[in-house]
Design a protein that fits this description.
homotetramer; 337 residues; TIM Barrel; 8-stranded parallel sheet; 18% strand
Amino acid sequence: MIIVMQKGAGEREINLVIEKIKTAGLDVHLSRGEERTIIGVIGDKTRVDADEIRAVAGVEKIMHVTAAYKRASRDFHPDNTVINIGPLSLGGNKVSVIAGPCAVESRDQLLDAARNVKRLGAVALRGGAFKPRTNPYSFQGLAEKGLELLAEAREATGLPVVTELMSEKDIEMVAKYADVLQIGARNMQNFILLKDAGQTGKPILLKRGMSSTLEEFLLAAEYILAQGNSQIILCERGIRTFEDYARNTLALSVVPVIKKVSHLPIIADPSHGTGRSDLVIPMSRAAIAVGADGLIVEVHPNPEKALVDGPQSLNFEQFGELMKEIKPIAKVIGREV
Amino acid sequence: MIIVMQKGAGEREINLVIEKIKTAGLDVHLSRGEERTIIGVIGDKTRVDADEIRAVAGVEKIMHVTAAYKRASRDFHPDNTVINIGPLSLGGNKVSVIAGPCAVESRDQLLDAARNVKRLGAVALRGGAFKPRTNPYSFQGLAEKGLELLAEAREATGLPVVTELMSEKDIEMVAKYADVLQIGARNMQNFILLKDAGQTGKPILLKRGMSSTLEEFLLAAEYILAQGNSQIILCERGIRTFEDYARNTLALSVVPVIKKVSHLPIIADPSHGTGRSDLVIPMSRAAIAVGADGLIVEVHPNPEKALVDGPQSLNFEQFGELMKEIKPIAKVIGREV
Amino acid sequence: MIIVMQKGAGEREINLVIEKIKTAGLDVHLSRGEERTIIGVIGDKTRVDADEIRAVAGVEKIMHVTAAYKRASRDFHPDNTVINIGPLSLGGNKVSVIAGPCAVESRDQLLDAARNVKRLGAVALRGGAFKPRTNPYSFQGLAEKGLELLAEAREATGLPVVTELMSEKDIEMVAKYADVLQIGARNMQNFILLKDAGQTGKPILLKRGMSSTLEEFLLAAEYILAQGNSQIILCERGIRTFEDYARNTLALSVVPVIKKVSHLPIIADPSHGTGRSDLVIPMSRAAIAVGADGLIVEVHPNPEKALVDGPQSLNFEQFGELMKEIKPIAKVIGREV
Amino acid sequence: MIIVMQKGAGEREINLVIEKIKTAGLDVHLSRGEERTIIGVIGDKTRVDADEIRAVAGVEKIMHVTAAYKRASRDFHPDNTVINIGPLSLGGNKVSVIAGPCAVESRDQLLDAARNVKRLGAVALRGGAFKPRTNPYSFQGLAEKGLELLAEAREATGLPVVTELMSEKDIEMVAKYADVLQIGARNMQNFILLKDAGQTGKPILLKRGMSSTLEEFLLAAEYILAQGNSQIILCERGIRTFEDYARNTLALSVVPVIKKVSHLPIIADPSHGTGRSDLVIPMSRAAIAVGADGLIVEVHPNPEKALVDGPQSLNFEQFGELMKEIKPIAKVIGREV
């Protein structure tokens, strides 16, 4: 950390900053210029809280030299973290596709979806039993009944199950049925949920918050890693911008950046990332081309009758087309679906 | 709701839309133009889920005529909801200021802060016992010990206590000590927490999410209202934009809009809304001038030593100045601090 | 256009709206519901100005049924507009890459760049003689000297030249030397420049503004089209968001949307779209995979010595790698570089 | 400027950075840590171009110690710049209101508006003769005829005239009639227009671009200042965000920040900043309370009949109310309207 003091900063302020750093067990490197004093923190592995320093009168700017996240960084863990759950493999050479309906609606709907996405090449099943809905009067999911159906679909197809966890109270129940716990964009900074989910030891699919920076995203992962759980699948699912032709702006450049600074696998969600079924296939191609480790895609036997997110769901034929289109792209960048 | 079908939309699609609306118990008004068919929904008080309709092939656009929130709307409840908790009064003619440290750090710090903000005109005490921190290695709050200190400060000063609730598991504990449960920006769409907090019947201070639209904000309030709890204090605390000179962009125009469309009181948080103590006083003046029902302000006996959010905290002298400056502004718009 | 009146709107307001529409030579379809009156505009091909209607007291909402742009829409011109300039071909099956330095700096630099990008597969040369610089004290370009060098490089390589036009005063000069006039993101709504450039009849590369919506982008193109010039190459170059790991957020989903609603070709600029040379290759792959008609890429003989935009420029080796990587991706989606 | 090199950066890279700095005539301060080398630039008054440095392999981060703008900074010119044009005074103790129609539509409309805004307290007249319209088919202004009418209105009322300049070609013409040249948000980075307008020596009202940072805004002003013209009125007119209840998000916190870092006066435009006439009065109160030096407000004899921006225009009665409400607010913060 490098601290730039204001032009007129006095000895009191400079000493207060130095004292704070030394109290944290770190050393300083002082550089007094003609106009400004600059204070470098030596050995900031554990990082003093920048806000504590910034609060001192006379501090003008602070620059971080090392990232705030540690266990999530590639410096800490140079090799890719690879997550293998049955046929699902993320972080290695394989590109994996997770597919299924937005919400579990019925036994028929789910089994039909599971069998067909498997047939078409998906290696894991998604489906929500608890649905975070903006509107309290919308369908909120089948809860435990939905989880049971997911488990049944796993039995029937062999596909591991990815499903959203919305509440600490449900962790035990969801962990009993699910293979991967999903933490949604709206809960990315629900820190208690992150900690508690992390403690289950289960793999966690963590979606990026709608207005989350790269550092916030990796610090959310750090909450899970700090519990000793490194089975984390990051997921870019679109950010909120002024754009109005799609539900979100899928920020694909985050993928190669994450691959560079972190060892965790990252996938893309073109369904939520666009909100439009006609954009799911082209953005899936782009996500694979940019280097994503996989996709999570909404597929419904009959999107026109879906209770949730029909406008962004693919039918089986479209999903088959998606799989057909991404395979050669994966191949030309040296990967395999 | 008005549904515009695409140019080439056929009878199958039109009938599918009509069927969905009728299934929801509503009537349609069909208008077949030369190029497009337009379907109006009659009696959409309970509103069909727009996504269900949008998923039908051939639907081009949907326009909502009525808002998605109901109990939060002024149509539903024409008079202002007024919340009175001891000296704190929001939604009426009075402008109330809630003040205190970001985090409860110690008995001395809290009591000192409480006595001084009271002396200077605050009518409620804020202070976090559970702190949502971006970084898992930052100070996370004193937990129940912090709540006990808050209760002690209430005893000592008579100020009602506003404190953040981060987890469903803690509701009982927090509700035992607090007068107002705060739900932070990061949890604005933690729907389980909204429901559970709503059911306590306690007044709730609901902060707007960092990238939340007006409708999403009021639908979050609707989750609480749907539990039969209308003791809700809305709070604008800044949105995330590309701006880089302040931590957030305090969007004050939301205040008069909320006063127009909703009956709920709305206050502003100039501390989080700017992240800079030098902007807190001018933005407080602006918030009162625009018509906010109150403020929530971070005040610390010694911001330079604060464990959390020091850079945006005022000391007592600055808070006294703030109170002095907002009083005449409240007066000229016919209100009273 | 569909106009929804407020609940209490009276006859005066309704009649005023109807009068405005009829004055514009259009017909209305009136639908009086129990609570609200809804007015449909029939035959809105030329579209009344929505603002004129919105200004009437009692108007609550307006929904557009048809787009505001006409000549830019695929409805107006169902087939792709194909632009052919020597080896450069955009809008057909071919994927074309435009490459070269950000700014023309010297004869050696430019000729070296031109020869090498040609050798590696580029079909047009980019290079700025006039540079829009945020800082008035930064290098502003070589002006006419730069244009002369571009013409010389075209002579030497056969590559058509794309260069930025910043001022109406320079149109004649720039048009004399350039094959394609580029209008930069900062000038996307410099309407006079759009008109004047359009009148030259020269092909125009129009970059999307940093905070421009889809409709604003196509309406900017419409300014050019309205001059009788349909030789327009649209270019997505990144939008401004809260993201901080890259200079801009390259919004690739706009590509398939533009291909759907418009007949104009669209390319991507991964150099400005990310601002980081390490992201240019992966985002180029993604842009081709999503369906862009081409790329415009910054390539410099020695990026470390570039006067402008060095951090986002590729060297020849990297550009060769880019070309090598996008070819098979173009092929698998049925296109050819 | 402080440059942090990457962990593994070698001598070649470090020396290349040092060479670039020394070539620019500046000195370096080298600090070799265990892991990283940090290079400080001494005497960076004229600032090396950060991009040139960032392009060097091995550079990780750059932090600016001083701002990129100079003449616009308060360091350069500690006292407020005060602009006096007849009754209009900005930058001193007075709060000035500029008012008038969005566009000049006719002699009657303009004279009626001018006389009434004067009667109600405005000290300058606004009105567009050239209108930057998103849609090429919308009314584009009366051009020179409009300028003549503005001059006539000045004769009739004594109010100085503020009007928009859209093109370098029109500078002479506009400068002949106008007292203040307005450069609109869409042209904030039309650098040629900034330079040419600056050279007229006329006062310039510079609106902040829709997605412009503070530094970009002040660097745009710097383009004008670099021509020797310091008669600049900055104007916050709303930024583009995801918010959808208003046309823009009026970012009032920029006002106290500008007052701190710059000597130039800053006013607010609540009309464009909200796009809704019902928000103009409350946001005007807030703008004055936050410390703006003035307002620019759209007022039309009959907003329902306005050709441009009717929805955000006030009628005379509303404008009278606005003036009545801001006066006591100005007074309580020690200023005078």
